C-alpha cells in the first residue's frame, strides 16, 4: 500500500482573457510547476484555439508527469457557466453565441474540464491556496479594469440556479447615478470602484479644483495610478477621489455583508494598490451602514496570491473543488 | 419490516413574537395536527416561559402521539442564532442578553431543538410545504411591519459564518435616504417597503397633494391598508405611494438577484395584499436594473402558505432540514 503524494497530482489551470490566455500546471499544494501563454484573439474559431493550447501544453505534461497524475482542467473565462461548461455571449471574445468549451477541451485532452468565471475561480484559489485558507464564508472582490466577485458560503461557491451568481460589480450603489459605459445601467458599483470608474471620478473632480495636481496630466493619461501618485504627494483632490470611491465601495460591501454574513471580504486587483487611501474610507462606510449585529466583525483583507498567478491557481482549484 | 409512515412523524413548530407565541404539532406532510398559543411578554424569565409552553404542549403530544414519533422542535424567533441555538439581544423580547434557548428547550422536552430567525424559518417552510417546493435557489421576502428575508442557495439556507445572514431588509437602497425609526440607518429597504415605511410615504405624499383621498383620514389611521383602499378607488396619490414603494423594492431585488441568482423571489406578508399596485412597479424596476443575463428569468411569486400558519410550518421544517 502506498499513500498518494498530493504534490504529484497535477491540474491544468487556464485563465482566458480577451487578449491573452495564461495557463499553468499546478499541484495540490498550489505550486505552479510549468506555465505559459497564448494569444486568445488570434484564433477565430474556438477549435483552433484549443488545438493551439493543446500543442503548447501536452509536451509539458509528457515531460513532467505520467498521464495518470493529470487530474483535470479548470478554466476561468468571462461569462463561463459552471453548470453547462459553456462560454455564453462573452462580449470580449471572438467566439460568439454559446460555446461548449468544456466538452471540446475534454475531447481534446481526455480529462474532465470544469469552468467558471474568473472572479469565482479567484475566490476558490484564495480558499485553497491564499488568504482565505480555512474560511468557509467570504466574499472575493476583484477591483481592476472592472469589478468582479466570487462568493463562498458554507465552503461552497454560490452559483445560483443558472450558474451566473455573484455579479456584485453590477449591483446598483447609487440609483440613477453614473451611467455604465458598457452595460448602460445607472449607478453600478463598477461605474465607481473600478480603475475605469476612478479615472472618471478623477476627471470630474479635477475640473472642479483647478489647483489640483491632477491638472498637470493630459486627459488621456489620467488613470488610477496617476491618482495614487498625486494622493501620495498630498494632493487633496486625488485623496478625495479615493475617499469617494471608498465610500461607494464601503456602502456596497455593507449590503453584501447583510446578505451572506461573511467572515472576511478579500480585496484583489490594481485598485487596491492605493492602500489606505481607499481602504480607510471603505471600512468606515461599510461599518457605518451595517446593523450593529454585524459591526466590527468582518475582516477586510488583501489577497495573498501573486497577481500574475492568481487566475491560474484559481482555475486549477476548480479541479479539486468537488 | 415496516415502512416509516411519514404522516406519523411529528415536529413541534414554535413561532416566538414580541407579544404572542404560536405553536403547532406538524407532520412531515405539512399538516398542522394541533395548535395553540401563549403570551410571550407575560413571562419575565425565559425558564417560566418554557415551563408554560411545556404545560400546554405536552398533553397534546401525549394525547395524539407516542413519544418515539416526536422528532424534535423547531423555533423561529427574532435574533435567533442557528449555530449557537441562542436568542441574542432581541429588542422586542423581555429576555435580555444571550439566551441559550435551544438548550433550555431540549432539557425540558427531551428532544433536539433547532432555531433560526422567523424569515429564515418561513423560507424553509416554503421550500418544504409551499410555493418553493422543488426549488434549490430562491429568496423569501417577508413584507410586514418590518422586512425580513431568508435566502436558499443550492437547497440550503445561507446562515453566514455567524448564523446571522439574510438581513436584506436592512440593506441600503437609497444612500443618505430616510432614517430608520429603530436602527438609525439611512435609506434601508425596510424604511420604504415595510407597512411602516408605506405609511410614512403616504403621510408625506398626501401633504403634497391636498386633493388626495388620503387626506380624508386622521394621521394616526394612515396605514398600508388605507392606502390600498384609496388606490382601489383610483386615488392617484395612493397609487403613487405603491409605485414608489415598488420602485425601491424592485431596485433592491435586482441587487439580490445579481448576488445569488435565484430562480424565484417569494413575497409574503401584509404589504403584498396591495397586489398589482406594488407588484407591477416592483417587477419593472427589478428588470430595469438587472444585467441582461439575468433579465426575464426570475419569477416573482406570492407565498402559498396560509399567513396564520406559515411561521409554525416554517419552524417545524427546521427539524427535518438537516
Could you give a short description of this structure?
Chain A has 322 residues and is of the alpha/beta class. The first copy, chain A, contains 9 helices and 13 strands.
Structure description:
Two copies of one chain form a homodimer. With 322 residues, the first copy, chain A, is an alpha/beta fold. Chain A has two domains: 6-125 and 308-321, Nucleotidyltransferase, domain 5; 134-303, ATPase, nucleotide binding domain (Nucleotidyltransferase, domain 5), CATH 3.30.420.40. Helix content of chain A is 38%, strand content 20%. Chain A has helices at 46-64, 101-109, 118-129, 189-193, 195-208, 224-232, 236-260, 276-288, 307-321; strands at 10-16, 20-27, 32-39, 70-76, 80-81, 86-88, 98-99, 113-116, 138-143, 147-153, 156-157, 264-268, 299-302. In chain A, the strands form three sheets. In chain A, strands 3-2-1-4-8 form a five-stranded mixed beta sheet, with helices on both faces. In chain A, strands 11-10-9-12-13 form a five-stranded mixed beta sheet, with helices on both faces. In chain A, a hairpin with a 3-residue loop joins strand 9 and strand 10 (147-153). In chain A, helix 6 crosses helix 7. The first copy, chain A, is globular, with a radius of gyration of 21 Å.
Amino acid at each position: 500500500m502506498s499513500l498518494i503524494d498530493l504534490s504529484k497530482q497535477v491540474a491544468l489551470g487556464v485563465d482566458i482573457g480577451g487578449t491573452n490566455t495564461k495557463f499553468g500546471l499546478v499541484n495540490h499544494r498550489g505550486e505552479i510547476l510549468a506555465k505559459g501563454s497564448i494569444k486568445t484573439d488570434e484564433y477565430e474559431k474556438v477549435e483552433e484555439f484549443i488545438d493551439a493550447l493543446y500543442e503548447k501544453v501536452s509536451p509539458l505534461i509528457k515531460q513532467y508527469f505520467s498521464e495518470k497524475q493529470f487530474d483535470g482542467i479548470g478554466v476561468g473565462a468571462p461569462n463561463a457557466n459552471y453548470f453547462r461548461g459553456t462560454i455564453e455571449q462573452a462580449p470580449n471574445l471572438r467566439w460568439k453565441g454559446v460555446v461548449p468549451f468544456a466538452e471540446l477541451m475534454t475531447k481534446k485532452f481526455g480529462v474532465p474540464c470544469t469552468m467558471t468565471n474568473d472572479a469565482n475561480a479567484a475566490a476558490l484559489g484564495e480558499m485553497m491556496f491564499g488568504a482565505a485558507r480555512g474560511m468557509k464564508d467570504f466574499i472575493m472582490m476583484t477591483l481592476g479594469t472592472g469589478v468582479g466577485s466570487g462568493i463562498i458560503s458554507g465552503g461552497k461557491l454560490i452559483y445560483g440556479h443558472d450558474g451566473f451568481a455573484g455579479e456584485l460589480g453590477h449591483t446598483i450603489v447609487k440609483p440613477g447615478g453614473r451611467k455604465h459605459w458598457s452595460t448602460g445601467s445607472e449607478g453600478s458599483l463598477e461605474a465607481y470602484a473600478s480603475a475605469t470608474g476612478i479615472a472618471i471620478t478623477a476627471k470630474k473632480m479635477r475640473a472642479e479644483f483647478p489647483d489640483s495636481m491632477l491638472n498637470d496630466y493630459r486627459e488621456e493619461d489620467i488613470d488610477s495610478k496617476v491618482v495614487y501618485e498625486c494622493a501620495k504627494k498630498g494632493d487633496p483632490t486625488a485623496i478625495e477621489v479615493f475617499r469617494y470611491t471608498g465610500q461607494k465601495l464601503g456602502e456596497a460591501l455593507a449590503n453584501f455583508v447583510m446578505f451572506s454574513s461573511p467572515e472576511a471580504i478579500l480585496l484583489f486587483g490594481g485598485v487596491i494598490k492605493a492602500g489606505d487611501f481607499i481602504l480607510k474610507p471603505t471600512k468606515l462606510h461599510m461599518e457605518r451602514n451595517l446593523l450593529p449585529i454585524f459591526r466590527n466583525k468582518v475582516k477586510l483583507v488583501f489577497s495573498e496570491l501573486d497577481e500574475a498567478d492568481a487566475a491560474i491557481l484559481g482555475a486549477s482549484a476548480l479541479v479539486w473543488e468537488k
